[in-house]
Amino acid sequence: MTDVPPAGDLPLLLLAAAAQVTDAVQAGVAAAGFPDVRPTHGFAFVRMAPDGATVGELAEHLGVTKQAASQLVDELVTKGYVERNPHPRDARARLITLTDRGWACTRAADAALGELTENWSETLGAGDLDQVRDALARVVAPGRVRPSW
């Protein structure tokens, strides 16, 4: 019989898995030519895709102040990943959307996630990986994914 870690290890294993996902995406986007992207940028990209978001919506999604979200947008505009556009329904707001560079970075992140998933599938087997995914889907509430810092 194999040694099974105690149930108390589960939260730590989930956090380690999340860190592995973040590290894989970070390495993948850097290797694809986007070394200036941080994990927080990726969480913002998720909210902006596919139709854009206001600074207020980004702030809520990221769990930060509007000022912090605005500074993040300034940084991403300067780096060429996003642009500010007139909002189609609110003249007071600006819609922040991904540029071609932002979309290319997003595709690189998706490719890195695909490679990580494939590696996990090779290690666990497709059936076991499906079971892990299905079990997590039963206990984890679907919703936005954002940094916890």
Write up what this structure looks like.
The structure is a single chain. The protein is mostly helical and 149 residues long. It is built from six helices and two strands. The chain is 62% helix and 7% strand. The chain has a two-stranded antiparallel sheet with strand order 1-2.
Topology:
Blueprint: H1 10-31, H2 39-48, H3 55-62, H4 66-79, E1 82-86, E2 94-98, H5 100-124, H6 126-139
Helix pairs in contact: 1-5, 2-3, 3-4, 5-6
Notable characteristics:
mainly alpha, two-stranded antiparallel sheet, single chain, 149 residues, elongated
Oligomer: single chain
Question: What is the C-alpha radius of gyration, as a whole number of Å?
Answer: 18 Å
The proportion of strand residues reads: 5-15%
**Sequence of strands across the biggest β-sheet:** 1-2
Distance between the termini: 39 Å
**Helix and strand pattern:** HHHHEEHH
What is the arithmetic mean of pLDDT?
A: 90
- Give the number of DSSP strands: 2
Which bin fits the share of residues in helices? Answer: 55-70%
Major sheet size, sense and barrel closure: 2 strands, antiparallel
Q: Shape, please? A: elongated
Summed up, the helix count is: 6
Runs with pLDDT <50, length 5+? none
Protein structure class: mainly alpha
